[in-house]
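Q: what does this look like with magnesium ion bound?
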Amino acid sequence: MSENLRSHNWFGKKNKDGIIYRSWMKNQGMPIDMFDGRPVIGICNTFSELTPCNAHLREHAEMVKRGVLEAGGFPLEFPIMSLGETLLKPTAMLFRNLASMDAEESIRGNPIDGVVLLTGCDKTTPSTVMGASSVGLPTIVVPGGPMLNGRYKGQTIGSGTHVWKFDEDMKTGKMTQEECEVAESCMSRSIGHCMTMGTASTMAVMVESLGLTISGASAIPAADSRKKQMAQLSGRRIVEMVKENLTIDKILTREAFENAILVNAAVGGSSNFIIHLIAIAGRIGIDINLDDFDRIGSKIPLLLNLMPSGKYLMEDFYYAGGLPVILNELKDILHKNIITVTGKNHHENIKGHTDCYNDDVIATYEKPLIPDAGCVVVKGNLALNGAVIKPSAATPALLEHTGRAVVFESIEDYNARIDDPNLDIDETCIMVLKYVGPVGYPGMPEVGNMALPKKILEKGVKDMVRISDGRMSGTAYGTAVLHVSPESAIGGNLALVQNGDMIELDVTQRKLHLHVTDEELASRRKKWTAPKPAAERGYVSLYIKHVMGSDKGADLDFLQGNSGSEVTRDSH
Ligand code: FES
Ligand code: MG
């Protein structure tokens, strides 16, 4: 057994290299029997005080270690680049692929037989899963868990979702700066990631539905002691997975990805799910494309009543029974021929855990909150490769809408003019924002849910159609057409839209059409010049040269696929 483990190629060596591999490790106080061929478990930690959503993960690592030791493994924690949504400029998304490279090379280059990924904030989940997928060891994810419900003046408030509301209230004079600072404290009152069904919760649900966590892991609040139990149990389980050689590629099959798409629709998950799932699939070598999301997910009903689509938060989801209840509602359409980290499929995992304790939080498949909830892909001359809209976060009346384009040529242009009282705009117009795609910004930030002009908000109007090649925070809402591909910075037709053009959005027909003739577009194209690259050196320059379109998951082209776990040469 032990000689088959890859860690044997380090710690099992009887020569000079073996001395080097073992001796320096012993400076941490490790006795010789730790090197006797027991499975070495890497604990890949995205802890950082600059990623507040993950700042509690050192404690989770200790719980995982406890479980690994109990099961006879050798736990070794290591840090990788941590990506926090709130502080990192210009956007954490710019560095998702970089962090995935960090995870991949850290796992492959070290004496690790199985890996536990400690995740939390949005990008920390896809980046680590992408990296681990490109190596292919037994892998388990321990999601860090959401914050407890926010409460402000007796009202439930959700991470992110209420930021947009507070911002609007400040603009329209309904809230003072002092009140806002109190509300901020109320919103983030415990450890954990955003507790709305934003991208972090979406990613936690994604890894559970893919089969990469132990059952029921995703909804447990970070502050709940059962999260620590889950971490400990995951530590025990990864040791078994190494013994069973249950590698990540055996879990991440096409059926697993299809299950994740079904579940994401049913929970009202973030539109960012699409980009990250495509990127992960690309590493495993499975072709998931935009049309798969529409085909598999768009007719799935919304079962989970969480902000931003609904009114509750992750804590309520956990008390209502968590993801096993949703999986049970979907049991007739979920693939059974999959295997999760437990070695069993979802149907087996959830046995005995299917009672719903609050049917206002989790609806049934027969009586859902919304009949067709999943993200929809629209196409047309404005988005030849597709664009994405999340109908459950949109205003139904705007899903079929033709309006006059009001164009912002950059995010700076938008910021400068949006609240100008002389801006020629009304609520029937369509706001268009250019150059916020992967190459354009760079990094495809979450600016697609552009705030409405103050003068329109003051009328009490809450939503307008907005179109961009950027993303939208999973905690946000609005009729936002996102991820327009090809993006404007590489010459997609979005770059050619002018003020006054008529744009037609028809979600039922899956249509996004710019009412401008092909001849006119061709003549505009002749006059168009590509923007100057955002960087000439460093990672950003590499990113701009190699990033693929958002419809391809915005991964770097050379990171697609996997290289296995083998490293043949020694370091000395
Ligand atoms: Fe980290 Fe929302 S900001 S999860
Ligand atoms: Mg986000």
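The first strand starts at residue 40 and ends at 45. The radius of gyration is 24 Å.
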